[in-house]
Amino acid sequence: xxxxxxxxxxxxxxxxxxxxxxxxxxxxxxxxxxxxxxxxxxxxxxxxxxxxxxxxxxxxxxxxxxxxxxxxxxxxxxxxxxxxxxxxxxxxxxxxxxxxxxxxxxxxxxxxxxxxxxxxxxxxxxxxxxxxxxxxxxxxxxxxxxxxxxxxxxxxxxxxxxxxxxxxxxxxxxxxxxxxxxxxxxxxxxxxxxxxxxxxxxxxxxxxxxxxxxxxxxxxxxxxxxxxxxxxxxxxxxxxxxxxxxxxxxxxxxxxxxxxxxxxxxxxxxxxxxxxxxxxxxxxxxxxxxxxxxxxxxxxxxxxxxxxxxxxxxxxxxxxxxxxxxxxxxxxxxxxxxxxxxxxxxxxxxxxxxxxxxxxxxxxxxxxxxxxxxxxxxxxxxxxxxxxxxxxxxxxxxxxxxxxxxxxxxxxxxxxxxxxxxxxxxxxxxxxxxxxxxxxxxxxxxxxxxxxxxxxxxx
Length: 459
Known about the structure:
Elements: E1 6-9, E2 12-15, E3 34-39, H1 46-55, E4 59-64, E5 69-74, H2 79-83, E6 88-89, H3 91-96, H4 101-111, E7 117-118, H5 129-133, H6 136-142, E8 150-155, E9 175-176, H7 186-189, H8 196-205, E10 207-208, E11 213-214, E12 221-226, H9 236-248, E13 253-256, E14 265-267, H10 273-289, E15 293-297, E16 322-324, E17 333-338, E18 355-358, E19 376-378, E20 385-387, H11 391-408, H12 414-423, H13 454-458
Parallel strand pairs: 8-12, 8-13, 9-12, 13-15, 15-17, 17-18
Antiparallel strand pairs: 1-2, 3-5, 3-6, 4-5, 7-20, 10-11, 14-16, 19-20
Active site: 155 (charge relay system), 196 (charge relay system), 392 (charge relay system)
Pfam families: Peptidase_S8
Organism: Amycolatopsis mongoliensis
């Protein structure tokens, strides 16, 4: 049988469903199954998707017909070849066949964002230097955001029992997406092996008067959208599920403190990568069309993302057709990190940056009594508070400010919301010692349009 016709529209790759009845094939029934993203022409009927997948030894996990992306499972080692190497990709299979190199690189990056210290009991407000840096305490006195606004936290899950978060988390808007199909059971979106999402959530909307802890927009709601699996990976199918969930549930803002694995770079013209890049691009653009502003961390490799020629996680060349997902997609607000001193964190990526926010730095130490060098927020360890460093910690500061703006300007399209967020940021110019920082104070490669400002967002 002839291969399905591959079409290109707007730079995207997909295939029309095969017109002829597929001949029966012998499928592997014993090997390890892997999950794939598979691209189709948007609007392709689910029945046509089912027919092709079955004919090529796959089964449907989920299908997002609006964007023409299927999530499929297959035990066949040649499933990607059967579908087409530009149409199908499995991050899980890629990791399993990578001889551990990607896993080792991933582990080094993730370790940076481990919880560094646990705060002692008492009034924590004095230790929240990160909030003071963006004028969040003054903003809180004026306006704390609207319960009509939900921020989707695409991450490792949120501990809804934490005293600072139990009033903010919206169970009815939360879902687990680690399989690529949304699961609304509480266990599916609760944290299991990581407190990363809980820490992010506290920065955005936590509030615990007894502990003296307050996030940026404690008046808004949070949706736990779990995209990180128990091994710490965020595969393309999870991200697709998360962005579509955000779109269909009307979240004005999402926070994305991750890059999609097992990259870090996906190349839109390479076999396999092309399917992952296209699937994620469609999901993000679908969410943007449905009113979602997606905010993303710049990454913690300390390099200029615009000049990389190699991928530190996978041995392949990188060119202008490649990007770190999700931040490489148009419309996503990319956030770099600064430490207590207000200069770029040593680990923060730079290059194409929209705004900057506090993410900590081990060499920028606050004075005694003002907290650890890494921002303090909620953890899953018995309802306690701990510090983490990373652009993952910077991104929710920007998302929190965006949530205040979304509360004030209900229904503002994401493009305009981003414009207000960047326009109200406080410019940060390149210091003379920052020789790799290029551009003017109001838009440079280290700090973008500047440091986000919560007070300006509520004036």
